[in-house]
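Course assignment 3, question 2. Fill in each field.
Student: A.L.
Task: Predict the tertiary structure for the chain below.
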Amino acid sequence: MQSYDSPAVRKPVHFITGCLILALSYVLQRDTLFLLIIAGAAFSFATFNYGRFDPLHKTPWSSLGTLFYPLGVISSFLILYHQPVCFFRAVIMVLTVSDIAAWLAGQKIKKFNVRFRVWHDKKSMWGSVAFAVSSIPVWLIFLPSLNPAGIAWFLLLVVVSVNFEAVSYRGSDNLTIPLGLSLFLLISENQTFNPSLILIIILFFAAGCFLLYKWHILDRLASLSAYLLGIWFALMGFEWLVPVLFFFVSSVLFTRLHTFLSKRKRSSGRRDFWQVLANIIWALLSSVLFMITQNELFIYFFIALLAAVTADTWASELGPLFNKKCFSVADFRMHAAGTTGGISAGGTMAALFASAAVSMISLYLFFGELSIAVLAILAASGFLACFADTFAGAFIEGKLLRSKIFGRGGRGPTPNDLVNIIGSATAPLFFFIISRVA
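Answer field:
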């Protein structure tokens, strides 16, 4: 098989494509430009497995960068559609210039070039430095209106940029860079935050998530996910961050308490990425939709969703400590506490208290006051979603466990993860129904 230097082909194409998108953004209407971007994405996907285009797509390390690239451009365009076009231009040029600068520095500078892996792809110290330094003139040129924002804001922007470049799986930085930076710019337009404080919080989360990994509480990817989620919710504001921290910290503490008091061995040494994602995915989506639409309804969805997952976790961990038996909704019989699809008095009370606590904390942080009627609706929504999770566990999880897909093992989501995703997704539905009826 003929060998080729794929990056030597891909990087110039990468640069030319970015410059072409930049140039077209000055002469075309947004909708026309978007159609051309969609056409380019279709071409990239259509030629990915076509032999003649292997030098463009394939690498010795099986990168999917040329597939992530159009997805990153599309996501950036959509997120920033209603924002000044200079935002989109700045993001595209960081992806074009700084990503290539990082690659060149990583390849050409050999002395003291420490290699490291945050997730999957190997990165280099000089590559990260080159990415950070080269991004500064891009921001200064394309975002002149934000230049007076201050040194702390630009330092935060550079730190966030480097984070999105370092977090890569098989070239996914072509997606995480434009997606993450677009969301950051959107938050900067719609939210007021102290950049110096955010920088301190980032350092705190970096240290905390590293310890969670070292203490075998989270695996590498779960720890990384928790770190990025912490940054996102910190940027959104403390009213978003505090309820998430309340859920996460209380879940870890009660899981440890259950393990200690019941003297049981933990079924797995660490929580994995899918467990973290299953609990936070809908709340994360609600926060993103609120940031894009500024629709207050997504705040209520966010609260109800967090109330639901907190209620489910508290019920699962505290219920067996108060009751040795539980009532199974699957066969209407009593079973040992902790059985999937089981309901106990202790677990029910824990779920109700958890849902009410999250709802109360969140309502006060978001609105500065407590409406008893709204509090009752949110608490009921989270509580009922916890029961929906119980029923899904009783009637769906067993079938999934017996299916061929999950019988193969692997690192994908477990049936319990899917049940958690399904169950918590009902919280906004319950909120909508109860609020209409009440």
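Instructor remarks: The chain has two domains: 6-190, 214-437. DSSP finds 17 helices and five strands in the chain.
Grade: pending
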